[in-house]
Each structure stands twice: as C-alpha cells, then as structure tokens.
Write a structure and sequence with these properties.
The protein is mainly β and 119 residues long. It contains no helices and 10 strands. It has a 6-stranded mixed β-sheet, with no helix packed on it. The protein has a 4-stranded antiparallel β-sheet with strand order 1-3-8-7, with no helix packed on it. A hairpin with a 4-residue loop joins strand 7 and strand 8 (78-83). The radius of gyration is 13 Å and the shape is globular.
Length: 119
C-alpha cells in the first residue's frame, strides 16, 4: 500500500522559512520523479517544483524560483521542500506527488501539510 506523509507545515510570518518533508512507503520511491504541488484557498492545485529520480535535476515554478529548494534523500525515502522568503501568497496546502511537472496529476499524492504565511 502506497503511503505518503507530509509534515513541516505551520504558521510563519512573511520573510520566514519552513522545511517540508514527505516520507514515502510501499512504493519504489527511488525509481520515480517527485513533485510538490500546492492549493491556495479558493484556487486550483498548482505545480510548485519537481526533482528527478537521482536528485540531480530540479525544476521550479516561476513564482517560487530562487526562494524554494526541492531535494530528496533516497536512502530515507524522503522528499523535502525548503521554503524561504515566504510571502502571503505562498499560503496553501502543500502536497507531495509522484511525477513530473506534466504528469503529477496522474500519480500518487499525500494528504498535505498546511503553510500559512501572515504579514
């Protein structure tokens, strides 16, 4: 049974930082690309970032480029997202998802962790 569990969300002020984690189990974690997606209140899910299976290539949405950093530890089946210089518009439920920028909608997804940024 595939299980993805995100953690690390919480409340933070603008300009602050958070580090999100996603631990996977029941899956050949290391064979796949992984992504972070988010859903802001009243908006659709949007792709934020993705990373290839080896962790050597990373991709970011323009809205987070230079502020967020995705990484993975295959030995721990864990995906990370470092969020820096947070803005109020980063407030959202963040999900880890199996796949790339183009394929994540068809893959597994966790239950999410909420990040709330206040001014």
């Amino acid at each position: 049974q595939v299980k993805l569990v995100e953690s690390g969300g919480g409340s933070v002020q603008t300009g602050g930082s958070r580090k999100l984690s996603c631990v996977g189990s029941g899956y050949r974690y290391t064979d796949h690309c992984w992504a972070w997606v988010r859903q802001a209140p009243g908006k659709e899910l949007e792709w934020v970032s993705s990373i290839d299976s080896g962790g050597g290539s990373t991709y970011y949405a323009d809205s987070v480029k230079g502020r967020f950093a995705i990484s993975r530890d295959n030995a721990k089946n864990t995906l990370y997202l470092q969020l820096n210089s947070l803005k109020t518009e980063d407030t959202a439920m963040y999900y880890c998802a199996e796949g790339t920028k183009k394929s994540w909608q068809r893959g597994y997804r966790g239950q999410g962790t909420t990040v709330t940024v206040s001014s």
